[in-house]
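User: Show me a protein chain along with its predicted structure.
Assistant: Here is one chain, sequence first, then C-alpha cells.
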Amino acid sequence: MRKFRPLILLGALLSGLYAQAGTIVLDGNYQGKNIFVQNPFSEAGVGFCVYQVTVNDKVSTDEINSSAFEIDLSNFHLKVGDKVTIKIMHKDGCTPKVLNPEVLKPKSTFDIVKQSVSSDGTYTWTTSNETGELPFVVQEKRWNKWVRMGEVQGYGTPGEHTYSFKVVPHSGENIYRVKQSDLSRRARFSENVTYTDPAVAAVTWTYVKGKNSSIHFSAGTLYEIYDQFGNIVKRGYANDIDVSDLKKGLYYLNYDNKTGESFIKR
C-alpha cells in the first residue's frame, strides 16, 4: 500500500490546486476574429497557467500548452453576430492575459432598409446587417443642433429588425435620424427622415414677472433655458416653467422650433 501513497498525495495536491483556480470570462459577439492569450508558467514552475478553455461551454481543442496561444473561434461554426462566452480556466497563483478582448465587442454595422414617421408621430425604422447589441439613439434636428430624444436597444443579430419610437413633433418640418456608436466611438447615422404634423400649431410664450416669476407657453413644448455663458440651466417639456430660482441676469430660451429668444430675470 505504501508505494501508492505518493500518487494519492499528488492527486490530492492537484485537486486542491484546481479547486482554487480562477476563470476569466469573456462575453460578446463573434466578429470573425480569434482571441489571443498570453500564457505564463504556473506558480509551481511546472506546466503553463491555463489548463482548459471553453467556448459556449464546449471545450476548445486548440493547443494551450505554450507561452501564447490562439483560440480559433471558427472551429465552433459561429456566424458573425452570434453571442460568444469564452471561459479561460487557469491555475492558482498565475493569471493569463487576453491580448485582444475588444474583438468580441459589438460593432455598429447596421444598414437602414426603410424608415418613416406615421401620422400619430411614431418614428419607425427597419435595419439589416446588425452584428452586435448596441442602442439606437433617436435624434431630432432642433434649435440648430441634434437633440437626443431617447434610445431603443438593438437586437444585434443578422436579418431585418423593425424598431419604433414615439416622437414629440414641433410645429413646421421635423427632421429625425438614428445614431449608433461602438467601442471605436465613431458614430454611424441613418439618413434623415422628415415629418410635418399639420395639427401642431406654433407655440408662443410670455414671461410672468413677480416673486414667483415663470414662463408660460401657449401649449406644451420641449424647451431649454441657458445663461449668457451658454450653460443650460433648465430643460424639459412643459406648459409652464418656474424661473423664480434663477439668479438675476440675462437668459435665452429655446422652445418649439424657435431658438435664442431672451428674457431678463430681475
